[in-house]
Amino acid sequence: MPETTEKFTILAVDDTPENLDVVKGILSADYIVKAATSGPMALKIAEKQSPDLILLDIMMPDMDGYEVCRRLKDNELTKDVPIIFLTAMDQTTDEAQGFELGAADYMTKPVNPPILKARVATHLALKNSMDQLQSAFDIIKKHKERMQQELNVGRDIQMSMLPVDFPPFPERTEFSIHALLKPAREVGGDFYDFFFVSEDEICLVLGDVSGKGVPAALFMAVTKTMIKTQAADDSSPASIVTRVNEELSADNPACMFVTLFVAIVNVRSGELRFTNAGHNPPYILRHDGKLDCLDQRHGPIIGAVEGVAFREDQVQIGEQDTLFLFTDGVTEAMDTSNQLYSEDRLEEFLRKADNTPDQLTGEVLSDVEKFATDAEQADDITILAFRIEQTPGQIITDELHLVAEIDLAEIERINTEFTQFAEERGLAAGVAQKVCIAFDDLLNNIISYAFDDDEEHHIEIDISVTAKRLVITVADDGVPFNPFDQVGPDTSLSLEERDIGGLGVLLVTELMDQCSYQRRRDSNVVTLIMNLA
Amino acid sequence: MEISVTESGEVRILSFQGNLDTNTSPEAENAINRLIDAGAQKLLVNFESLDYISSAGLRILLATAKKLKASQGDLKICCLNETVQEVFDISGFATILSVSQTEEEALGAY
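Output (structure tokens, whole complex):
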């Protein structure tokens, strides 16, 4: 029965007008009945008037009912209209063929009026339910998309908080560091951070916020910011963690918490002080292949209890020793049969590893991914590796600090002073020549284009030499500009086609072993490195 | 930067001493243009005493090569030190310009 005042429309198809009259007589009291006397006519009406149900004869000249049914099901506009075959044929094979084509029902003529009425009403009711289900599904789908957007917002917050430019301190040759975070489908609230708290002390942070989604991402952002703020005037991990815990637990209605590992490493002395607040114990991979687990714990998770005084411990790390930090996304990664990656597997992998931090982080992630195969990643995976490259005793550094005024004539003076410095240190003539070429192009660029005001500016150049490397930084307080973003010239063109320009940056990047650019506060800092071995 | 000019038949030979960079390139370009303006069509740039060349120096070589080619002239370069050779390789100038090991070899190729 129609549930609204609006009547359902039924399309009856039969090549015999008398049969159509019979159907009309039975159904027209309750429904609007349209009639078609051939297959093509039925298809046309079905497409234009979208009936709610079709009664379809099978034996018709030109196009039989099966073909009409096939075409209705192929058409996006008519494929969902229920079809009842109504025919004189009564063999079961025909019935089967009708159902195979997607018919809703099958009745033989002559029709029994009450049965026809009942079947039509049933299929209309069924169609009605299907439509309601479909619209409910559409609503759910829309909600799901909105939730997905929220997930993306959380991930954007999380990822935008992380330092992702490596190497982050290219001029620091005494250590190397690398970190990566592979977010789960739903944000898990992991984070890492590293920053200098003094000339020689670097703070390393790794944390994992409870919960998921936007709340976890926001809590992560707050925690990370708080740690950096506290560390600015406090170089004890225990006291940083204690103060961050006080602030986070004092006003935490959502009862979120974070597991945290904070370390401060003196890169000159190799002294490592650390506080572990409920986090997975990190490892130290010693240069001789030994693996130490830093399993000391210094207090509970952060944000849960006020008034806790966290403690700290100290260990020594030396040349080629690596501190390896990770979140439980690594050890609790599951394979398809719900087995955990586990500490055992991680330790086994680390024992065999002898790599630079950037290789190590990537290889551990690959190993976890290989283990998990097709299982969905349930939690963020975060890894941070920090290695002491040279102990201070072995670093024989020679330094030169030069300041250039904003005047092209200064380039010659800088190059002369550098060449003299290089000669005195016994550097090869080629090294000095290449650096001079780099200076010529970089300084020319800066002097010509970096300043658009009348203020006084200058360019700071710092050069340091060890037995292995020459490291140069060129800093200017001009407009933000990354020279290495420029597209180089096509060096394969002929003389006629070659354009003048773009060559300078190409020469710099090719002549130096490493080039990088960073915008630091109000300065452009370009770092050039040449290997001297 | 010192530039000296000698002659060998029709060829004008420019010898550069020092560096060819932002500050010295205008002077070098003037010296080259004076020769071309005076009718020289065959130029040989001898880099034997050149320490290094930056992109500013490459720029005037490219401009000169284009100019001479357009007027059926010829620019050749000889005697690159290791660093200058590397710069020529990186920039592709080693293939678009005519470069010789020695002055004799270059003169024989006109």
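Chain B is about 45% helix and 35% strand.
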